Amino acid sequence: MGNLEQGRLVWAELPDKTGQFLKDRPAVILTKTDEIVSGKQFVVAAVTSKFADPIPPYQVPLPWAPEGQCVTGLKMACVADSTWLVAITEDSIRRLGGVVPPGPMLAIMALVTKN
Fold first, then answer.
1. Cβ–Cβ under 8 Å, residues 96 and 29
2. In whole angstroms, how far apart are CA 60 and each of 35, 36, 40, 94?
3. Angle at CA 28, nearest 5°, toward 26 and 33?
4. CB atoms within 10 A of CB 20
5. Average pLDDT in the chain
6. Residue 60 gets which letter from DSSP?
7. How far apart are CA 26 and CA 11, in angstroms?
8. How far is CA 49 from the centre of its chain?
9. Helices marked H in the chain — which ranges?
10. Taking the domain 8-114, which CATH number applies?
């Protein structure tokens, strides 16, 4: 599967935050692009539409638009969760999405490296 790069949104079969129930969910690729190798695991942060208001400090809001006409392709308010990390392979990916812009991506990476 081409176009796997850091910051790309993917829909993949991921466990819930407890590590139990698998479901197709969006996620942001965190692994550096040059470290993504076919057949090898790479790390993603789960994206969820369930979040508190105000948004907790470990989550980063992502751009979205009702028709998905934005850089991420997301159609509802979502956050990337820096504490919900999963190692996947490209075989887990059901489809590719858009890309997280530099500002939110830097915020996600800062949280991940902090934790």
1. no
2. 24, 23, 27, 23
3. 140
4. 7
5. 94
6. E
7. 4
8. 12
9. 102-114
10. 2.30.30.110
Our measurement of the distance from residue 36's CA atom to the centroid of its chain's CA atoms, rounded to an integer in Å, reads 15
The per-residue pLDDT for range 23-60, each reduced to its tens digit, is: 999 999 999 999 999 899 999 999 999 999 999 999 99
Residue 112, classed as helix, strand or coil, is: helix
Could you say which DSSP state residue 55 is in?
Answer: P
- Per-residue tokens: 36: 């993504």
Residues contacting 72, CB < 8 A, separation 6+? 9, 62, 63, 64, 97, 98, 99, 100, 101
Query: In the numeric block, which tokens belong to residue 89?
Result: 């392979």
Tokens at 58, concatenated:
């470990």
Place of tokens 């969820």: 48
